[in-house]
From TrEMBL:
One of its GO terms (biological process) is methionyl-tRNA aminoacylation. Residues 514-528 have a biased composition (Basic and acidic residues). A motif ('HIGH' region) lies at residues 11-21. GO terms for molecular function: ATP binding; metal ion binding; methionine-tRNA ligase activity. GO terms for cellular component: aminoacyl-tRNA synthetase multienzyme complex; cytosol. This is Methionine--tRNA ligase. Residues 405-539 form the Methionyl-tRNA synthetase anticodon-binding domain. Signal peptide: none annotated. Binds 1 zinc ion per subunit. Its EC number is 6.1.1.10. PROSITE patterns: AA_TRNA_LIGASE_I (PS00178). Is required not only for elongation of protein synthesis but also for the initiation of all mRNA translation through initiator tRNA(fMet) aminoacylation.
Amino acid sequence: MAKWIVGSAWPYVNAVPHLGNLIGSILSADVFARFLRLMDEDVVAVSGSDEHGTPIEVEARKRGMEPKELTDKMHNYVKSLFERFEIAFDNYTRTHNDVHIKFVQETFMKIYENGYVFTKDLLMPYCLKDEMFLPDRFVTGTCPYCGAKGARGDQCDFCGKLLDPVDLIDPKCSLCGSRPTWRKTKHFFFDLPKAAKGLDQWIKESDLPENVKNTTLHWLKEGLTPRAITRDNKWGIPAPFPGAEGKTIYVWFEAVLGYLSAVKELDVKNGTNLFEYFWKDQSSRPVYFIGKDNIPFHSIILPALLRATGEEYPLPYNISATEYLMYEGKKFSKSRRIGVWIDEALKLVPEPDYWRFALIRMRPEDRDTNFTWSEFYRIVNSELNDDIGNFAHRVLTLIKRKLNGNVNGKIDEEIARKIEELHDKYVKAMYQVRMKEATNYLLEMARLGNKYLNEKEPWKLLKCCPEKASDVLYTSLYILREIALHLAPFAPASAQRLWEMLGEEGDVNSKGTLAKEHSRPPKNEIGEPKPLFKKLPEEFSDPNYVEGLLQEIREEVEKERPIPFFT
């Protein structure tokens, strides 16, 4: 049994996450953590709202409110949406909390005292009209690498290059649009080349995914440069260094430390010792769920920061960096209103398990994947309803109607062998964080059950050979029981309903259930059969129809948001 630390990239709370954000980090992390718990592993799963930095400060200024007022409202709203999606982290917290702030300041003081921080004077854009320096997103301009307009002072969203404000062509203040002047200001730098020494060897020898390895080695080959730790904006964690008054920690440097501080916060709240247990053990396995654009922050900057503290923290065991989820062939875009945001999704189709399962089935594990309404419709109606739900309904109603809900028999050995093979493949894929692949084996179990039922025809056997019919139905219950166990990480509420219909007791989502209950025979007496899923209307396969529905509900959803972002 290993110790697992599961971390999801912290959603930035300047807006509601869309479906691509959900599958790229939060949902994937939750599914993996649920699987580990079911396998009786020791796991702590954490994430939270990333609420500091210039984007929030810019947004708050534009709305005439304080940054904390904005993040308070958005954090509570987004957290409630995740709860509706059945996301079950051990701690879903936020960066503006006392434990995180203290931990970040203490960590950077260790890094400072160990000789990895130095100061340097920089020429930074200064807005005469707003009377302030313009760090990061306070300044926009043309990207010097790809020529895209609207690049920010920290990164170009079009080509992905990390930038400094001085790199931008034709820079402008993002608040008033005026051209800034340049003034000298002192900043504190993290000596990344020094702290990251030897990381290339670790990357080469690791079992990290190929896209993570390739991106990281490309960065290392191009050469690392020191990165500025501090910013001149007000909204953030005050820099703890001597002479750093009025400066805050760059949001990316402090956010990645949230994976550690969130566990420490659990100890503070509950009087536990989880931080020592998980984070001070070199054999622990940290697994991070992120989008591919965040790879360097997790494969280079976070390991370098952890090394620079002098503490014996475990380096990443796996970094699951998904490719992009497109929307009907286009990139999700708030400004162009392209895509579906998670509060809209729940208004459109209120069953969270449908979204959870469908998004995992479309998870962009190896390449960019296209979310389409026709595919969502197919997954819900064909895979969930027909393959799994229909098999369950056929078996359970037959037992209830013909045998008064009670059946006994022998499990078909050939079926049991095939289920065991599918279970082994499923478990292997899940440990490798290939969740989309794992759902293939789950669906194979259901299709095996349907094929077995169709071939054996127990409704006919009941008339002539009741003992054989009982064996077939009992074997079918065995398959259903395995389906419930393996469905639990993806669709926990539906798995629980199936579990109860099978006459099983307790929560199928409890720690150790899959490890302890797999391959056991089913109960003899079942519960009351009810439809497990229901089909979507045929019109849901037509994107124009669904877009029309979205337009109808979007105004209603916008009114429910604490901070409207389409109006």
